Amino acid sequence: MSFRLGPILIAGTLVLASGACAPVDPGFGETVKYAAAVQTIDPDPVYAPDGAQPGDNGDKGAHAVKRYRTDAVKAVETMTTSQSQSGGGPK
Questions:
Q1: What is the CB-side half-sphere exposure of residue 32 using CA atoms within 13 A?
Q2: Whole-prediction pTM value?
Q3: Taking the mean position of all CA atoms in its chain, how far away is CA 63?
Q4: Alpha helices in the chain (DSSP H)
Q5: What is the Cα–Cα distance from 67 to 74, expressed in whole angstroms?
Q6: Which of 35, 46, 52, 56 has the fewest CB atoms within 10 Å, measured from its CB?
Q7: What are the b/e assignments for 23-55, b being 16+ CB within 10 Å?
Q8: For residue 33, what are the CA distances in angstroms to 23, 25, 26, 27?
Q9: Are 41 and 35 in contact (CB under 8 A)?
Q10: Distance in angstroms (rounded) separating the CA atoms of residues 76 and 33
């Protein structure tokens, strides 16, 4: 009796183990492709008009350090991104 029980247990274990395999996701590898695309250099970058431009050679940074050392730092501009309204609706 124990001779027949061994192969049955082995076969049952194999059937259960093969059923636990997950199907292959068709989008597998998309994360790697996305990460590579994000890190690819843009051949035609768009720069802000007042931002650092190629070839600036640190002129803006040098001026900022000079203002810092002479205690003439520019004032911080406060900006808001939302407006709040209160009140009831029509009566």
A1: 3
A2: 0.27
A3: 33
A4: 2-19, 30-38, 59-69
A5: 8
A6: 46
A7: eeeeeeeeeeeeeeeeeeeeeeeeeeeeeeeee
A8: 21, 15, 14, 10
A9: no
A10: 40
Q: Evaluate if residue 6 carries a pLDDT over 80.
A: no
For residues 47 and 56, give the distance between their C-alpha atoms in angstroms, rounded to a whole number: 12
Mean pLDDT in the chain? 77
Token pair for 19: 């059923």
Q: Is the pLDDT of residue 71 over 80?
A: yes
SS3 content of the chain, % helix, strand, coil (to 5): 40, 0, 60
CA-based end-to-end distance of the chain:
87
Residue type at position 58:
G
Place of tokens 């002129």: 59
Which has the closest alpha carbon to 77: 50, 46, 53? 50
